[in-house]
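Minutes, project huddle
Topic: does the predicted pose make sense with protoporphyrin IX containing FE bound?
PN asked that the exact inputs be recorded in the minutes so nobody has to dig through chat later. Recorded below.
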Amino acid sequence: MAAESPPNQAEIDWTKWRRPEPGEVRSPCPMLNSLANHGVLPRDGKGITKEMAVKALTNAINLDVEIAKFFASGAIATNPDAHAHSFDLTHVRQHGLIEHDVSLTRDDIAFGDNNTFNPEIWKSVVGTYGDSKETNFALASEARYNRVIACKKAHEAADKEFIYGIKEAIFSYGETALLMCLLGDPKDGKIPVEYLRILVEEERLPYEEGWRRVAQPVTQKDMKHIVFNLIHANEHKSAEASEIGLGTVHALQNAVTSLLPSYCVIM
Ligand code: HEM
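Predicted holo structure (tokens), as shared on screen:
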């Protein structure tokens, strides 16, 4: 049976959240899962067309339509059926397409489950914020880079292949930037840690706690601004640049910020 189109922003009743039931599928992405839990994406997580994904991402959370189209095309490309015009949330876990090593909330594929929320890993990440009520560039950068180091060590200790190159760095920085843009103010990267925890731990938009979708669509310019600041705030940016095979921090900044649009064009 064809799933229904997601509702318009005005029609979204954010209180209609529920956990997935048996047979309903979810992804490694806390935002897609949250949107399915709210019924903004199909609750069963299946048969999501490009149109449905774009409508959900633009209407519900005010992502710029061009970025939304890029993400939705990327999601459809994860469907093992190359002729498909839709995707299920389980498809996007396929390693090496969008899913990558160094996740903040899931384990890496080499250690088994790259799809399900992992409370232990998340505890180590969210612990970086300590008693802070809000995120900032320095702490978000530290939380992210700590995962690079921890994942690298874990792979080395287990003699497994660790993949963290330019593409993975782009996705990793991009994911933190998305959180900062869509849960808070795209200019200053501050979001309440409570919002972050609710999205990740409950897979729910923190509407009851005060979150509202951003007033203006979040654009690539917003994302680049946040990514630039995250790199700038990373105390280990030189080490990270050489880790991914780039000679200088400037090259890292250029790679991550200027490759974002070309990835969009490619997909
Ligand atoms: C069609 C749209 C989207 C698709 C297909 C998608 C897919 C994915 C996938 C496959 C991952 C796993 C990456 C990894 O291995 O860590 C992921 C992670 C993530 N996504 Fe999405 N995503 C989409 C939209 C969004 C949006 C709009 C947000 C906004 C906040 C978002 C936030 C995140 C975050 C924060 C992570 C990192 C989770 C972690 O590191 O454990 N995603 N997404």
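Observations noted during the meeting:
- The CA atoms of residues 30 and 86 lie 19 Å apart.
- The pocket of protoporphyrin IX containing FE is lined by residues 28-32, 53, 57, 63, 71-72, 74-75, 92, 98-100, 103-106, 175, 178-179, 182 (CB under 6 Å).
No decisions taken; revisit at the next huddle.
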